[in-house]
Amino acid sequence: MHLAYLDAGSGSLIVQAVVGGVAGAAVAAKLYWRRLVARFRRQPTDQH
Amino acid sequence: MAHPDTGVRVDPGSFRDPGNRVFHRDGEVLRGLDERSARDWRALAGSGFFRTLLAAGKLCGTEEVAPTPPWSATLRHERIPFVSHPYEWSFGMLRDAALLHLEILRAALVDGFTTKDGSAYNLQWRGTAPVFIDIGSFQPYRDGEPWAGYRQFCQTLLYPLLLQAHLGVDFQPWLRARVDGLEPDQMRRFFGGARRLLPGVPTHVHLHGAMQQRNARATTSDVRAQLREAGYSRELAAATVRGIEKLVRRLDRRPGESHWSDYQRTCGYSAQDRHAKERFVEEAVAAAGAPAMALDLGANDGRYARIAARHARYVVAVEQDPAVVDALYRALRAEGERRILPLVMDLADPSPGGGWRGVERAGFAARTRADVVLALAVVHHLAIGRNVPLAEVVDQLAGLATPGATLVVEFVHPEDPMARRLLANKPDGLFPDYRREEFERLLAARCRITRRAELPSGTRTLYRAVVNG
Ligand SMILES: C[S@@+](CC[C@H](N)C(=O)[O-])C[C@H]1O[C@@H](n2cnc3c(N)ncnc32)[C@H](O)[C@@H]1O
User: Fold this and answer.
1) For chain A, which residues lie within 8 Å of any Cβ of chain B, measuring from their own Cβ?
2) Residues 126-145 in B contacting A (C-alpha not used; CB under 8 Å)
3) Could you tell me if B270 and B414 lie in one domain?
4) Which of A46, B213, B406, B461 falls between 20 and 30 A from B223, CA-CA?
5) Residues B302, B181 within the same domain
6) Is the pLDDT of residue B36 over 50?
7) What are the chain A neighbours of B237 within 8 Å (beta carbons)?
8) pTM of the complete model
9) Do the beta carbons of residue A35 and residue A10 sit within 8 Å?
10) B255 in a domain, yes or no?
């Protein structure tokens, strides 16, 4: 994987999805949904 | 610049991207590319958008030359006549520079390329035409990735424009103080209350700042992967760029009228004075023999910069008042004048060296070697208005010129109404040296005075002088 020389900023990458109209908002929503799901999946195992 | 033209000199402003680096040799501007950058360059050179933009003059002239070790490939760039920094530009200039950056990015995306960064320092000027200079910034677009330069674009281009357009705050000091521009979190403080809703502010400022905070611990490689999986696409990247472009187009509030905006009407020159002055200036520049660079200090509406441009190849017009520079920029563009570069700068506080070690962005004095210097009706502003000793003012005028250069200076006598007005703001007798004889003595110590003329009004003297070697 190639790495950019510049720190693009994690938040700065995500916000670009949000400002990209309806399609962009859908991508952002999907990203957050996946993060949420990943969190819930992790939690039960965390408790052991 | 005072560097030996033999051997290689690495440009101190070109180190952030290790994949390519600008250096100077034999007066040429060259760029070394490592293996990956060389591959990107070859792909770029074969792409349609690149050739189109190059032919249109929107990209800095570039061709490949024999490689210089250790680089895999070497490019030679067109020399930009005078390097300037974004904090020396007017609002309209920064806005046009931003629009060009976005136009180039949009065209690149269509052909499957993107830019690695989005800095205002990617742009320079040929007169009043912006030019994208960072050819090393192009790389093939990778599917599913947003623009890596967006944050930099916000910090060095969009935020300064928002400050000026929405709040009427001059952006130049902010950019000058911070080589990386304004942070989203700083911007949020400017745009509280009802200002939250101004165009561009809810998303590019507030949401952007909030997202940065909330994702502070996520790495950009993770986020890139997440966005790709969530379906981010090149079409989306292009839509985002179009959205920003639309926003920047809306931000076109002109800086308001200022004290100096109406100078030519209120300056108190008679028509005779003006004719005599114009003739004197024109003859002096013509006699300088096609000078490469003329500098007009305190240029105001650019009347004398335009006269200088009839004989000089390039004119840099320096003026402290941002609103006046903006009006000049728009006027020059409308006239199609392409050899005058207007810049915002206070001569009593010129651009210092900035960035790493103070040399990454060269200060004004380090960039300037003029063949002609015009200082018309500006010496009294420095000597009386700003208390700069007259000897220092003369030193500075000569210091901005090459040896053998022509200096054209107007000395406003202390009896002149404009000088009297400035003197009236200072205690009596504060400037005993501010006299014509003393000015002439100081000038003669550094230059050979070759011509002298009294303006018909009798309270102003013009000098033409050749700077000592
Ligand atoms: C009296 S006008 C002269 C304009 C023009 N040079 C001419 O001769 O018609 C002075 C101009 O110098 C500018 N000026 C005054 N002090 C300055 C400074 N410290 N740095 C840059 N410009 C300055 C003013 O804003 C104004 O536009």
Assistant:
1) 1-21, 23-24, 26-28, 30-31, 34-35
2) 142
3) yes
4) A46
5) no
6) yes
7) 16, 20
8) 0.93
9) no
10) no
